[in-house]
Structure formats: structure tokens, C-alpha cells
Design brief:
8-stranded mixed sheet, 2,3-Dihydroxybiphenyl 1,2-Dioxygenase, domain 1, single chain, alpha/beta, 25 strands, Rossmann fold, 494 residues, 3 domains, Nucleoside Triphosphate Pyrophosphohydrolase
Length: 494
């Protein structure tokens, strides 16, 4: 590979190594362009031929994790000083073969580099190998006084790797150059997607449970959805399975080392954010271990880490995450959550688009379809059963003049009223229905339900029926409502 004098090359198109970004007007113009070229989510960016690090500094300032490379030791020294405190790594190295080992990136950024390469086709092939699926090249090039590479020529070189190339002319925006220019200057944003092949980013999300509570983190300093709550999450990296990705992200974000057998798949959701591309999200469930308390392991990206009740989630959440947790509570397994470009990233109680559950295979023969109960007072029954079933994870399902139902998965409970109803409370000692029994996740959840039940019309049964069984069997409690209908709540002892 021919050695290139990058400083002399910069002079050949009458630009300073800083690309003129010392001018606040020019810097602001490039920052606005960078916001449209780079992903909205925090991403790994490789800046090749970084010079003194001006574009790398803009990318880091927008919340991205940046690695920068330049062949000039003098440039690298200046870039390191400029980027101090941003977490950016700056290396001396050849842009054609950057010294990044097996790392993979979401974005490779190169300004005025390709036109200088002796074998640009081979270099582009290598650069694409450094991108994660769905990643992108951002190439800023041009033709100056007959020297350089045209947009048509560079697009032809990219055709081997992708059909998705966005061409953005830059000559007409004098703010980018600090002067009027009449030569060809442009940016190409090329997506790392093979022709005719659909690819999506894969997200992983951790629903860490502490009884009826779930752990949420407040995003900060990422450049995407900052100030909103989200479960610990991240992206699967190239060649990484989703379970391994979840284990890695949990360790990086909340300092919890999970074993593979601690993770349970909660649901899978295909999602499209406002103005973004589709992605696939895997939500995993795990139990909190008091011996391994979570901590804020990334204080530069998270301003708060706390437990919140799953049945009363806060509103200031990322809409995608809130849809996943709502689906999890309703025992949905596969969801589609699709934003329009005009939607907001933040959840809004009345304005956020709901996730659409996808039907799964029909329930096997013999599984319970629904239970129907008669109630003497419909309003009273709706208040009492609505509270209990809501706390147990059932979602409101149907309403009609004589009743209401709540659904969980493919089964539901109906509480209705009929004018033919006989008087008196429910006779649990006569032939017929004795009680409904529900699973409860753990002892802490059961204790919380028992503490709140009297305020919602449910009373523990008399002393003759103890609320807890002995430890040789499950931990259970019985409650009765105003109409005399009984439920049993069953939880494991541990």
C-alpha cells in the first residue's frame, strides 16, 4: 500500500486538517448533517482519516461511542487532546486497514479519504466487513479542480455490496464550507445490506423481577430518548446469539452476572420507531437475586436505576419498552409495535400506538377457555374482580350491559349478572364451584396482594381456614369478596 501524506492531501483541496470546523457556523452546519447521517440510537462509530478529530467530536457529542484512526501521528496527538473526556479511542493507523481487530461498528465515517486510496474497491470491501448487519458507511467526497472521485463513480464501487445508497449533494450549502463553492461535493450513506435481503437490528431487553416490581433505568447522555425510563437493554452484536447478548448487556449496564439458565423468554416484538427502520426485540425475564443487587454500571448513560410496580408503570417511559411490558403483563408472546414518522418516542397514555398481538397456534384440546361467574351487584363485582384480576396480570377484555371479562393469554374470566339470579351469597359448601385458584409469582407478591385486598372488597377467610399452608406444600391464601365468592392464591415458598 502506498504511503500517503494526508496533510499534503488536505492542502490539495484547499482545506485545513480541521475541515474548517473551528468556525462555529461551519461546525453547527456539519452537526446538523451528522444528525441525519448517523443513527438516532447510540451507536459504535469508526472515524477513518479522522484528522484532528473534529467530526469524531461531533459524533461523540451526539451520544455515539467513537473510535478514530489517522496515519498522521501529529494529527492523532491533536485529536486525542480534542477528544479527551469523551471516551473516544484514537489510534495511529492506516484507514485502509484500521487497527481495530475483531471489533464491528454500526457506522464507518470517512471524509476525503476514498479518493486517495490506490485500490478503493478492495478497501470498501474490507470496510463493509467491519460493519454490523444494518450498519452504514458515511462517505464524504467530491471532485476539486478535476481531482477526486465523483458521486457516480463511488456509487458504482458500492453496488457490489448494497443497493441502498443515499446521495446528498453538499456543494449548495455554503455554511458547510465557510464560502460559496461550485465544484462537486457530496455525501453517500450506504447501508450494509446485501441486495434484495431484509435485515433488522436485534434488541435484547431484561425484565428483572423483584416480586411484583420491575427494574427500570432512566436514559441520560445517549442522544436518544434521554430522560425516559427503559428496562436494561442493548443490541446483539455480529455473531452473538440473543441470550449471550442479554447476559453481556446485563453485566455492562447493571453489573449483574446472569447464568444462561436464569433467563426465560418473555416475548418477541417487531418494532419500528418514528423515522427509523424495523428491528426485532427479544424480552427476557429473570428473578432478582438479593446477593447480586443491580447497580448503575454506566452512570454516563443512566441517571436513575430503581424498582417500579409492574401493574402501575410510570408514564415517562420509552413507548417501545412500555408496549413490551404491557404485552408481558397480558401474557402476549409475539407483538408488532409500529410507529408512524410523526409519532413520539415517548409513551403517552392516550396517544401512543398500541402493540398488536400476533395469533399463535390454537390452544391444545382440553385447556381452559373461560370461567363464568354470576354476581348480584355488577358494579361491585367489577370493582372487586377488576382489582384482583388486574393485579394477577389479566387485562380488560370485553364489556356489555350485563357483565365484564378479563383476559390473560387465551383464557378469560367473565363476571356477569342475570335477573334470574337467586338471592343470597355464593354457597361454597354446596355442590358446584368452591373457589377459583390462581398462581402467584412468589411469596412477596402474595403478601402484597393480601395487604391490599381488604381495601378492594376481599377479606381473608376466617381463622378456621389459615391463610398459609405449611411449608410441606405451596404457600397459599384464601380470600372472599362481598358476594361470598372465594379465590385461592398459590405461590412457591421460596
Amino acid at each position: 500500500m502506498t504511503t500517503i501524506d494526508w496533510d499534503a492531501a488536505a492542502d490539495s483541496f484547499d482545506e485545513e486538517p480541521d475541515h474548517g470546523l473551528h468556525d462555529p457556523v461551519v461546525r453547527s452546519a456539519w452537526a446538523r448533517r451528522m444528525e441525519t447521517w448517523l443513527p438516532t440510537a447510540r451507536s459504535a462509530v469508526l472515524d477513518l482519516g479522522c484528522g484532528t478529530g473534529s467530526l469524531a467530536l461531533l459524533a461523540a457529542g451526539q451520544g455515539h461511542r467513537v473510535t478514530a484512526v489517522d496515519r498522521s501521528a501529529r494529527m492523532v496527538e491533536q485529536a486525542r487532546a480534542k477528544l479527551a473526556g469523551t471516551g473516544t479511542e484514537v489510534f495511529v493507523g492506516d484507514a485502509a486497514r484500521p487497527p481495530v481487530g475483531k471489533q464491528r461498528f454500526d457506522v464507518i465515517l470517512a471524509r476525503h479519504v476514498v479518493w486517495l486510496l490506490p485500490d478503493p474497491a478492495a478497501v470498501l470491501r474490507h470496510w463493509f466487513s467491519l460493519l454490523r448487519p444494518g450498519g452504514r458507511l458515511v462517505l464524504i467526497e467530491g471532485v476539486w479542480n478535476g481531482t477526486g472521485i465523483s458521486a457516480a463513480g463511488l456509487t458504482a464501487l458500492l453496488a457490489e455490496h448494497t443497493e441502498r445508497v443515499h446521495h446528498e449533494p453538499l456543494s449548495g450549502d455554503s455554511r458547510l464550507w465557510g464560502k460559496e463553492v461550485d465544484d462537486e461535493r457530496y455525501a453517500l450513506v450506504a447501508r450494509a445490506e446485501p441486495p434484495h435481503r431484509h435485515t433488522e437490528v436485534v434488541d435484547v431487553h431484561l425484565i428483572l423481577r423483584r416480586g411484583s416490581d420491575v427494574l427500570l433505568a432512566r436514559r441520560a447522555g445517549t442522544g436518544y430518548a434521554d430522560g425516559l425510563l427503559h428496562v436494561p437493554s442493548g443490541h446483539a452484536e455480529d455473531g452473538e446469539d440473543v441470550r449471550a447478548a442479554m447476559i453481556r448487556e446485563a453485566a455492562e449496564e447493571i453489573g449483574v452476572e446472569l447464568d444462561p439458565d436464569e433467563l426465560r423468554v418473555a416475548l418477541v416484538m417487531q418494532h419500528r420507531g418514528p423515522g427509523g427502520n424495523p428491528r426485532m426485540g427479544w424480552f427476557f425475564e429473570a428473578d432478582h437475586d438479593p446477593a447480586r443487587p443491580p447497580r448503575n454500571a454506566e452512570p454516563d448513560r443512566c441517571s436513575e436505576l430503581d424498582w417500579f410496580p409492574l401493574e402501575a408503570l410510570p408514564d415517562d417511559m420509552v413507548a417501545y419498552c412500555r408496549a413490551g411490558l404491557d404485552g408481558y403483563r397480558a401474557e402476549q408472546r409475539f407483538l408488532i409495535h409500529w410507529h408512524e414518522d410523526s409519532d413520539t418516542v415517548a409513551y403517552t397514555p392516550r396517544g401512543t400506538r398500541r402493540a398488536v398481538p400476533l395469533p399463535v397456534a390454537a390452544a391444545p384440546t382440553g385447556r381452559l377457555h373461560h370461567i363464568e361467574l354470576w354476581a348480584p351487584d355488577p358494579a361491585e363485582a367489577e370493582a372487586e374482580w377488576g382489582w384482583l384480576l388486574g393485579r394477577l396480570g389479566h387485562a380488560p377484555y370485553q364489556r356489555w350491559a350485563g357483565g365484564r371479562s378479563w383476559r390473560r393469554g387465551d383464557s378469560y374470566v367473565v363476571v356477569g349478572h342475570t335477573p334470574d339470579l337467586a338471592g343470597g351469597g355464593h354457597p361454597t359448601v354446596r355442590p358446584g364451584l368452591s373457589c377459583l385458584a390462581f398462581h402467584v409469582r412468589d411469596r412477596a407478591t402474595l403478601d402484597a396482594l393480601l395487604a391490599d385486598a381488604p381495601g378492594h372488597g376481599w377479606q381473608p377467610l376466617p381463622t378456621g381456614l389459615p391463610p398459609y399452608a405449611d411449608e410441606s406444600g405451596p404457600c397459599a391464601a384464601r380470600l372472599a369478596n362481598t358476594a361470598g365468592q372465594e379465590v385461592e392464591l398459590v405461590a412457591p415458598w421460596s
